[in-house]
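Can't paste images in this forum, so I'm doing it all in text. The chain is below; anyone willing to post the predicted structure tokens underneath?
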Amino acid sequence: MSVKQESAIPKSVKKYSLNKTKICFINKIKIQKKTKKPKNKKIKKKNSKLKSKNKKTKKNPKSKIQKNKTKKQKQKQNTKTKKQKQKQKQKQNKNKNKNKNKEQKTKQKSKNQK
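Text version of the structure:
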């Protein structure tokens, strides 16, 4: 004789319901358990920051564009001045070295003459 065993959970109830409660059957008694979502605080913070940025740009996008342009201009100018200063220093160092070399040569010549 073969006896068919029926599962305690009917097929229609095995899936999750819409309100995210998992339905379990223990000894054919219905018990509802809430499923927990994993909490990602970092992601939430990032999203909130992005939302706030979007709000700011939506309010006055032209001013933001202008600010970016001025920032870029300042950066360019700073790099130009830095390069110019570096070139000046290099020239000064070269001149100093030349002068030192000349002085050393003249000293040596005077020593040799004596």
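Residues 57 and 64 are 7 Å apart (CA to CA). DSSP finds two helices and two strands in the chain.
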